[in-house]
Design goal:
Blueprint: E1 4-12, H1 22-25, E2 26-37, E3 40-46, H2 47-50, E4 61-70, E5 72-78, H3 92-104, H4 110-126, E6 129-135, H5 140-153, E7 156-160, E8 162-163, H6 176-190, E9 197-202, H7 210-222, E10 227-232, H8 236-245, H9 252-258, E11 266-270, H10 276-284, E12 288-291, H11 293-298, H12 306-311, E13 315-318, H13 330-344, H14 350-357, H15 359-364, E14 382-385, H16 391-398, H17 403-413, E15 419-424, E16 427-431
Helix pairs in contact: 4-5, 5-6, 6-7, 13-14, 13-17, 14-17
Bound molecules: guanine and fe (iii) ion (FE).
Guanine (GUN) binds near residues 92, 321 and 324.
Cofactor: Zn(2+)
Function: Catalyzes the hydrolytic deamination of guanine, producing xanthine and ammonia.
Keywords: Hydrolase, Metal-binding, Zinc
Length: about 450
């Protein structure tokens, strides 16, 4: 078991209320030493200050030339949609009918679910994502397969079966009673098993009847430490449809709020077309947002207002939203978040982007006491980045001046090629083949 690692390290040491506080909260050690203790962070120091902590003759894993950052936290993703990423031509509602529902129908088959779960987790790990909040399908076997695969890797994942009882094909809908019963069984089987967590997952308001939402409300009341994961205000037609379906409520979020589905462990994906009182409601209830830039651009949904999110003091993380999102790479997703900022006149720094992708995302999921940075005692989930792999990256890396430029280049030019290894709870669970030759004692 590895106890000592020498590399460059970057993390954000505490959660912040404004982006202006971020540079001070950031920590960069060009030549650092991390010590692990049974899967947790024991210490992180400068090599020169820390090397006396090593036992005589102790083996040190040498990752010099690499940058280690906390494992990425993907706050919104659909594992069954892996196989339909990059589907041409539609915006949200047509895209669901034409591409999404047919693919999700296949997850009644446990073998298919197991095969795709393995592929999906491999995609997360090879992109440096160590934690995620994940949609299954309506079939409980979809979630059983995913949790079974994740528990073997001891990943900190949160997932849930979709709850859906209208406005979708027959083979993907259920009665509120079935939904309630199957959800209870899954909670009993998986919630708080090791590092796994369960999320109540009503797809979104249009596929939920009032009776279904009542069941979700009841479950939430009974299991207060469970998560709530859904979509909110992604697309203008969707928002108009919710107003038609729920005329008695004062807007989209008011539907969820009425059934007490807002709150500390509630995560709403997208939030693009929000009214002032909806922002206020997210703040007042301590709910969180998953900002999904590649998805929002790909489906033409809209441009997230990150600046407003800070002003309203709403917690947020970054989500890939595969398969409406176009990449599993959180680096690429951060790069697209920057471009969304550009279109809105907001300057997203690399420091801020890495914050959202690590500690900020962990806070949005209420997991920041376990993961998100290298504070002593946290679980040792991290990514070993190779800052420059392609000829272009190497050229730009060589003429970049400081860590901020290097981080910005990683999110602008980087992708899965830059992931050298991924560690979960102090164990290397994935590594790029050619890395082997670099591993030796110092
Ligand atoms: N809204 C309801 N379902 C979905 C989905 O599967 N993907 C996205 N992006 N939005 C949704
Ligand atoms: Fe989604």
């Amino acid at each position: 078991e590895t106890r000592a690692i020498r590399a460059s390290f970057f993390d954000i040491t505490r959660t912040v209320d404004t982006p202006q506080q971020l540079p001070e909260a950031a920590r960069y050690l060009e030549d650092g030493l991390m010590l692990l203790d049974s899967g947790h962070i024991a210490s992180l120091t400068e090599w020169e200050q820390g090397k006396h902590l090593l036992r005589p003759g102790e083996r040190v894993l040498d990752y010099r030339g690499h940058l280690i950052v906390p494992g990425f936290v993907d706050t919104h993703i659909h594992y069954p949609q892996t196989e339909m990423i990059g589907a041409f031509g539609e915006q949200l509602l047509e895209w669901l009918n034409r591409y999404t529902f047919p693919v999700e129908s296949q997850y009644h088959c446990a073998q298919h679910a197991a095969k795709m779960s393995a592929f999906f987790l491999e995609q997360l790990l090879s992109n440096g994502t160590t934690s995620a909040l994940i949609f299954g399908t309506v079939h409980p076997q979809s979630v059983d397969a995913l949790f079974a695969a994740a528990s073997k890797l001891d990943m900190r994942l949160i997932a849930g079966k979709v709850m859906m009882d209208r406005n979708a094909p027959d083979d993907l809908t259920e009665t509120p009673e079935e939904s309630d019963r199957q959800t209870r069984e899954l909670i009993a089987r998986w919630h708080n098993k090791g590092r796994l967590g369960y999320a109540l997952t009503p797809r979104f308001a249009p596929t939920s009847s009032p009776q279904l939402l009542e069941k979700v409300q009841q479950l939430r009341g009974e299991f207060p430490d469970i998560w709530l994961h859904t979509h909110l205000s992604e697309n203008q037609q969707e928002v108009a449809w919710v107003k038609e379906l729920f005329p008695e409520h004062d807007g989209y979020l008011a539907v969820y709020d009425h059934y007490q589905l807002t709150g500390k462990r509630s995560v709403f994906a997208h939030c693009l077309h929000m009214e002032g009182r909806e922002w206020q409601c997210l703040h007042d209830t301590d709910s969180a947002i998953a900002f999904c830039p590649t998805s929002n651009l790909f489906l033409g949904s809209g441009l997230f207002d990150l600046q407003r999110c800070w002003h309203q003091d709403v917690k947020r993380g970054i989500g890939t939203d595969v398969g409406a999102g176009t990449s599993f790479s959180m680096l690429q997703t951060m790069g697209e978040a920057y471009k969304v900022g550009q279109l809105r006149g907001y300057r997203l720094s690399a420091c801020e982007a890495f914050y959202h992708a690590t500690l900020g995302g962990a806070q949005a999921l209420d997991l920041d006491r376990y993961i998100g940075n290298f504070a002593r005692g946290k679980e040792a989930d991290f990514v070993v980045l190779n800052p420059a792999v392609s000829a272009l990256q190497k050229m730009r890396h060589a003429n970049s001046r400081d860590i901020w430029e290097k981080l910005f280049l990683l999110m602008t030019l980087g992708d899965d090629r830059n992931i050298a290894a991924t560690w979960i709870k102090g164990r290397c669970v994935w590594q790029r083949a050619q890395l082997e030759e670099h591993k030796h004692s110092v």
